[in-house]
Amino acid sequence: MAEALRWTSQDTTLALSGDLDRDSLLPFWQQRETLLKGKQALDIAALNRVDSAGLALLVHLYQQQRRSAPSFTISGASERVKTLIALYNLNDIIPVV
Fold first, then answer.
1. 6-87: which CATH architecture?
2. What CA–CA distance (Å, rounded) separates 8 from 91?
3. What is the pLDDT along the chain (97 residues), one digit of tens a residue?
């Protein structure tokens, strides 16, 4: 069973935890603009699981935020997430640290 996606906001960083997959991302998607307003970073270190839908969401968020915050970063990517990014050949589209 998927663990609910949760988020917390600290200063200019939004942190995600739980599972980021097709079954859990809708509530976040519906609030994304409000949640990311003024954010410079997205911390995904506490994500347990990311599927292809979750990865697509991360790509979208990164590209969207870079328009208003050119220094926006995604940090805390697990080896699994980095592997997904490499498998889909997205390293130039969504750099993660």
1. 2-Layer Sandwich (3.30)
2. 26
3. 568 999 999 999 999 999 999 999 999 999 999 999 999 999 999 999 999 999 999 999 999 999 989 999 999 999 999 999 999 999 999 998 7
